[in-house]
Design the sequence.
């Protein structure tokens, strides 16, 4: 007899009324995990995600009521595309008990989740992220949104998916730069709230960078568990959820200081974390040893492109931050690896100083 | 000394995190009742509601961050207008702790409430309805929506206002036909759930038709209390809330069978109630005495235009109902005045028979 292949581990993280599933081979069994009260599904996916959407098409078969191809790229994250999805869904005969399945990167999941939030005042949806950024962050926590000419994510809703399926097989064709940048959010989740995950994730970094399935599943499941744990204490982003913005205050400014797409979101966050480490050492008692350990991990996730450091360019962007006041801009500071807090107001010159000296080595 | 004028009664109905205020003279004191976490307000109102919006402008003074004029009429209940409001609000510097104030009919409150629901993933809003339909129904219960070319209210959100101000003074210029049609929803609320309110509302009908302030306040406050009581047991419209659809199954079909606006919504609901009374007598044990009492009230609220009764026109519209199945269409039946239940499936021929014989006298 030939040996039975080992069953890959599947992790289930309960999330509100739904669940996040992380594991190798989930896609083949998608019909076991995807949720639709009526049993009917509306698939939304870009052509580029075909290697992930095809197994789902096959698994769902005739339960697919609509197979909608969405454009790719940040420009597609628009109210116009929500309208296109709405029109197609209503034309297909959408009912309140049907469910969407978004397969793709953050654009596909954000736009589809928002369409699901407002169609018939809310129908169920499922997310199948195909990027590390999606699996570590974008598809988890219930935030959906589209961009507005005046800024990113300005129109949206809190509408958690009923199921998230994160299958490392989807990452097979993800370019290395995107693969690595997306992982920054997974490590970030560990650093702000889970010292043990931080330590396990450091140890498995080499395996993760080699795209080892088991190591990735452990990291992504751990990060999802941290994020859901935080989100469920603060679903509407009014307090503790801000911890997940570690690295994002300066990160958003760095991302906005260069033409869109020059820096990946995760890369900007990596630099933002490097700056927050400097401020954390001064204001939150973070040890240089902990800061150095994080910088080491970030530098191995990189190398990341050098960001804009010109204070004249960064200052106005920091002042535009949603949480900015006359006294400064809120930031998340690390006290030690696994414990963070929100600092309501860090003066802009401190951010600029940190941007000048931050380093990833 | 001159006598102190009697202070008109102000009713406060707690509603989730907010409240519904019903009373004469509320508008003058709008700044006492309208809620904004930041203290800043974005006013949205059609030019036709100026007699109601002007006192609010005056009461709020420099706290008005944006004064946006929205178009009037059902065509304005569009995603395009949500975009216009969003653009104006973001241009004015909208922050998460600001609040909208919608002053006007159901179009103004529905569109503004929906914009508030999705801007920055949700900001607070207040409703100042200027029609009986708005005060009795549209502004209460948290449903916001816009129309889609494929149907009414197909895009929307559950996003209750923090305060609703219903001041009879707003009704001074409302045409009599709209005034009367809107009241159908107030009586409907009494009939499905509150026998005592039903009886008081019958007694005060003459005063209400003469626009007596105190009688109106008592009726509208009672109807709001019934609606909020039902909504809070079923905010997402999954069960008990359907009771509020008494008269709406056939009503929607009657409304859709003629050019838009030919029948007021409340008029269509009045006929729908007349039909539901016939079915209720057969299926739910409603006495002819109770049915006759309701018909008497409806005929005094009218006269309402004769509706379309052609089964060939009504049957396809009934089959399109959101709650339709192969076996029939759900309806709300009255067991006696003040007690209703949902009948999951009434065969379409029964609706058509009831439409053929329904009467309002």
Sequence:
């Amino acid at each position: 007899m030939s040996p039975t292949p080992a069953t890959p581990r599947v992790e289930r993280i309960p999330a509100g009324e739904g669940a996040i599933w992380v594991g190798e081979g989930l896609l083949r069994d998608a019909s076991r995990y995807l949720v639709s009260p009526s049993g009917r599904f509306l698939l939304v996916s870009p052509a580029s995600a075909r290697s992930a959407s095809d197994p789902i098409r096959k698994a769902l078969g005739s339960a697919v009521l609509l197979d909608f191809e969405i454009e790719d790229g940040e420009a597609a994250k628009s109210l116009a595309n929500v309208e296109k999805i709405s029109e197609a869904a209503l034309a297909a005969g959408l009912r309140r008990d049907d469910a969407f399945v978004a397969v793709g990167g953050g654009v596909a999941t954000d736009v589809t989740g928002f369409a699901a939030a407002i169609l018939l005042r809310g129908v169920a949806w499922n997310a199948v992220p195909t990027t590390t950024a999606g699996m570590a962050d974008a598809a988890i926590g219930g935030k959906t949104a589209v961009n507005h000419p005046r800024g990113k994510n300005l129109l949206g809703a809190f509408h958690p998916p009923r199921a998230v399926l994160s299958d490392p097989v989807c990452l097979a064709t993800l370019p290395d730069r995107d693969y690595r940048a997306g992982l920054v959010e997974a490590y970030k989740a560990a650093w702000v709230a889970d010292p043990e995950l931080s330590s396990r994730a450091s140890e498995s970094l080499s395996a993760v960078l080699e795209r080892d399935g088991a190591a990735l599943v452990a990291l992504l499941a751990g990060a999802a568990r941290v994020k859901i744990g935080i989100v469920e204490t603060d679903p509407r982003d009014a307090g503790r959820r801000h911890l997940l913005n570690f690295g994002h205050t300066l990160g958003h400014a760095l991302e906005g200081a260069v033409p869109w797409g020059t820096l990946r979101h995760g890369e900007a966050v990596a630099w933002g974390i490097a700056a927050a480490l400097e401020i954390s050492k001064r204001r939150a008692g973070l040890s240089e040893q902990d800061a150095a350990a994080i910088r080491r991990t970030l530098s191995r996730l990189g190398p990341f492109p050098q960001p804009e450091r010109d204070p004249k360019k960064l200052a106005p962007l920091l002042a535009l931050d949603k949480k900015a006041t006359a006294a400064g801009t809120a930031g998340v500071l690390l006290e030690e690896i696994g414990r963070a807090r929100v600092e309501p107001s860090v003066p802009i010159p401190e951010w600029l100083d940190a941007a000048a000296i931050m380093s990833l080595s």
Remarks:
- Chain A has a mean pLDDT of 94.
- Chain A touches chain B at residues 79, 83, 86-87, 90-91, 95-96, 114, 117-122, 143, 145, 148-151, 153-158, 236-237, 322 (CB under 8 Å).
- The two ends of chain A are 52 Å apart (CA to CA).
- The longest strand of chain A covers residues 328-336.
